[in-house]
Amino acid sequence: MIRFEAVSQTHKCGTQALKNISLTIPKGQVCVLLGPSGAGKSSLLRCVNGLNQPTSGKLFVGDIEITARSLKTIRPTIGMIHQAFNLTTRATVAANVIAGALPAVPTLPALLNLFPREYRAKVCDLLDRVGLSEAHLTRRVSELSGGQQQRVGIARAFMLDPAIILADEPVASLDPAVSADILALLVREARARGATVLCSLHQLDLAVKFADRIVALKAGELVFDGPPADLTADAAARIYQTPVTPALAPEFA
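-> structure tokens emitted (253 positions)
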């Protein structure tokens, strides 16, 4: 569960990224964040994983308030999936997946690549679950397609069986068919573990297809919160300040 209590966040330059956000995302829910570029979606995600600090308000993961002191406890319970994959492209697939265990491994053993044996066994299981074979273990990430790289990213995010998955535009650089496959995989793995998903997207049709709930931000403010069925073309047009066409959101046609 993630709970925002009147959270605001201002960048060092003085720009207010989030304005008085109050929001509760229950355990196991797939919540998609929508909104134009600069709306505050990434800022919201970065507050949850501790990369941004709220200027005011409180933010909880479960019953624990996120503070500088509590981050060490909270971070192993959060998996992160990135838009640009955020993988070490010259390293092997196996090395990238096992890196997902870093929050739970002391610094020195991690630097020496000394991970518990059970973690290494788990890498093979995770690759199988995301549709990659053992033949991929020793391949460099740079040799993989974009879709395969994001599968590696998903496997890495689930390395510690996190209670929460944060995904920041995870399919922005992928074609529509691969995007749908990747989101289906992400949602399937999250539901298998009862994990909460908070995912930002720009693709309205995919949001409607995969979300349990849609939350939209505009200029740092919460402007929509409801089930996908309530996100009509008119509501989407108000969020993006432009008419929504069937080409942009085929589910609305």
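The chain has a mean pLDDT of 89.
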